[in-house]
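W.,

You were right to be curious about this one. When I first looked at the sequence I had no strong expectations either way, so I just let the prediction run and decided to look at it fresh. Below is the sequence, 80 residues in total, followed by the output.
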Amino acid sequence: MKITNVENRYLVKVGNDEILIEETRNEKGEKIYVFQSLKKAKLPNGEEWNEDLSNVKRIEKREELPDEVRKILRKTLNLI
């Protein structure tokens, strides 16, 4: 599977953490949601990698998310 397009990116505060949600599409046009909490990491060579958050929509309240994304976030948080 190859992601061909990232349509939207949201940064949502959940408890004490922030979750990055990417609304993407694959080569078949199917919508895929990617959830990640890692925004920076220390690399083996000593450098630090940081996620580019310049084009992210920062969400203060979950109600600000689109309905479909909010429903998927709720289901995902219930699973973990």
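Here's what jumped out at me. The radius of gyration is 14 Å. And, maybe more interesting for your project: Residues 3-79 form one domain.

Coffee later to discuss?

I.
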